Amino acid sequence: MFGWLAARSTSLCSRAPLTVVSRRVRPIKPQSLLSTLPAFGSVLYLHASAEAVMRDSLPSGLLVTQRAFAPLLDTCWLVATSVVTDDGPREWFECIDRFGHPRARLHLLPDTDYLAWDALMSSCEPDGGLPRLPGATPLRPDSAMVVNFQLRKLAGLLLLEQGRAVSLSPLGDRIAARIAHAESAALLK
Predict the structure, then answer these.
(1) Which domain of life does the UniProt lineage start with (predicted)?
(2) For residue 168, what are the domain limits?
């Protein structure tokens, strides 16, 4: 049986529909990005190593309370991506630094505020504005966590921190776990 399937799989797969990925891009300053994050509610946040953040180019007046949030301070481009996978539709924002390297990703969950998400996504233009760099590599996340971002002012600085933990819906929990698994990232609780 397996031999038949292996011999016939090429012709079977050629008839399968290709996955269509929609990408929209916009330049964004870290201050603008950070100010929109609290409106999202719960999102799945995946990040690359915070050590890769360019220390000489960090924006003034912004701080983060967790090292995991440091890649957000290095964001110059936001790429809104939509795709339909085997597990269903997925949407996320990829945070890209000035060199075209992905630093973090924010995934839409059933518990996310869709109006705030759509408001930011609508400001993105069809793919074409992001500079293509030969050295750019895909995001290799260190970990994933469900986050409710919160902003507060502290001594004239804008401080991004993790808000109080809220429980996700059972569907949101399952989707967050599936995305983290698909990204080969540990889901931190």
Answers:
(1) Bacteria
(2) 17-188
